Amino acid sequence: MKFAVEAVEKNFSGLYTAFQYGAPPHGGCAFGIERVVSEILGIGDSVREIVAFPANQRGQDLLMGSPNEVSEQQLRDVHIQVRKKN
Description:
Elements: H1 5-11, H2 13-19, H3 33-41, H4 72-77
Helix pairs in contact: 1-2
């Protein structure tokens, strides 16, 4: 499946910009280093102190703009059907 560059830039702008600098060195298989560092530093209560882009108090990721609304096509792509209340 191919996507138009404009659609990718619009829907995944943060990720798209990040990949302009190259793929992550771990190839997408990260081991939760921030959690290990939080234990070493004795933070323990919250990894938000050391995570580069933590979610805010509402659970929003401001860099990626999530959570956000999805289109009907995106729901069909992942085989999700939403039922509306009567």
